[in-house]
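Title: Prediction job returns without error message
Component: structure pipeline
Severity: low
Priority: P3
Assignee: unassigned

Description:
Job completed but the reporter wants confirmation the result is attached to the right record. Sequence as submitted:
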Amino acid sequence: MSTQSDYSLTRVAVTLLAGVLLTAGTLRQAAADETTDKSDIVIEKRIIAAQRGADEDGAIAPELPPAHGSPVVTAAPPPIRQSGFVYCVSGVVNTFNPQMASSGITIDTLSAQLYDRLLAVDPYTYRLIPELAQCWEVLDNGATYRFHLHKNIAFQHTAWFTPTRTLNADDVVFSFARMFDTHHPWHGVNGGDYPYFDSLQFPQTVQSVKRIDNETVEFRLESPDASFLWHLATHYAPVLSAEYADQLTASGHQEQLDRLPVGTGPFMLNEYHTGQFIRLTRHQHYWRGMPRMAQVVIDLSTGGIGRLSRLLTGECDVLAYPAASQLSILRDDPRLRLTLRPGMNIAYLAFNTRKPPLNDVRLRHAIALAINNPRLMQSIYYGTAETAASLLPRASWAYDSESRVTEYNPAKARAILRALGKTSLQLNLLVPTASQSYNPSPLKTAELIQSDLAQVGIRLTIIPVEGRFQEARLTAVNHDMTLSGWSTDSNDPDSFFRPLLSCAAIASQTNYARWCDPEFDALLYKALFSQQLASRIETYHSAQQMLAQALPVLPLASSLRLQAYRFGIRGLVLSPFGNASFAGVYRDERQEQTP
């Protein structure tokens, strides 16, 4: 029997039990917050076509293409129940290289399993900690950074690559020079877009990345940057294999680097079926010790109530980002555990500031006044989020409580619209369909906003955007607004401001507002050049006050991170900064309870 059959057939059989094990009342309660009332909602059923990176079925390649004719799937792993767990999450994979992703499960789930970084962020203390680099030095007042690597770190041995050496400085130089050096032979492979680091203008910031010796790498910057280490600790900064890249260059298959991953992480890619599931298998020679589970299946096939039913029937072991409306069901079931942690995230509404009529800041303020944020908190988050007063979450050390932008005043909104002569206005709103840590129910959020705007005379058309097409949203500049959000791996405010609202972020397609203000950019760079925390806080407060006036985006909510799992699953870590490694996850057979 094929490796696909083990998981797929079990999934079909168990799903058929969902209607029996879930009462009709429970299903109605959960589904009420996951479905759309078609009689009340105007939705343009249009999908924005991707410009690159996906075939007609959304695959990054036809199911994981064989490397030079070798088989994709090696020996069949044992049944998942005996040797691993199923992680259910909503999303689509456009690349297996986090360098080339702007958001989604490549960042939130896969990166920590497939790769390691030079540094990481401790999920409990929020401090930088070593990962591949055992230590580092900050030189030249923050303009030079030198990293000393651990020895004997093995790369994954896959069906498409057999390493002959362990990690060394060449791998680090290759991984970062590819992104930062626009003349590097690998820079343009698979499009040459590195959204996160492009939005930070790192190609202009990093002067050089060079090998000092086999275990030492030095980054030299054009000027001091107080945020630099924090950016290297994000999941956007994995270390790849230079030896693997050399092999692909020699064979003429460079495009496979980002599609058939090779890293040093605890798990390696075994199988991928577009829109269905990803199977990861254990990296036997992982440098931190062999992972406790032999495999992980990441189920991508169902959202909303379907994922909940699978958790309740035992087909899913872990449910990522459950809807807040489902919390009472999850809490009341003795077979389940629920974890909640503060999150470094923000949900926001981005205005297309380059397209009339939303290039008028007065209209943007009118729309903000018309949105009933308290209702969003109640109907979408059910007490698991707080109203956002800034683009930064309250947990950030640079949060400014004086720059509040959220106020519900529809009468004032109508008055502004009358003064502008906009008493009958039609706008559209792009909305992702997948739940995220910062917004568990994007479509329902859009519907509530649509209802609010209708009360002040604005007719809003909702345009659902499928996950694999989200990176192409800004290439179609005729939209009016985008419902989006951001979750960062970093505790530095720069991880929010520059990727989302800097001028450079327009070209990298992470600035959905298409807003550019040189004065705002100047504030951001002033904060980077300072090594004094008090000075940085003051500068970031000024930046937040500027955003409150210009309002290119309307912050909506800062949410808790939620995760539900079967009682017998142990070792899961829920981080405020994104998903953590699954290396320590295991089953406690004494606690295992099957339906």
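Comment from assignee: result matches the submitted record. The domain at 3-33+55-95+266-339+564-587 is CATH 3.40.190.10 (D-Maltodextrin-Binding Protein; domain 2).
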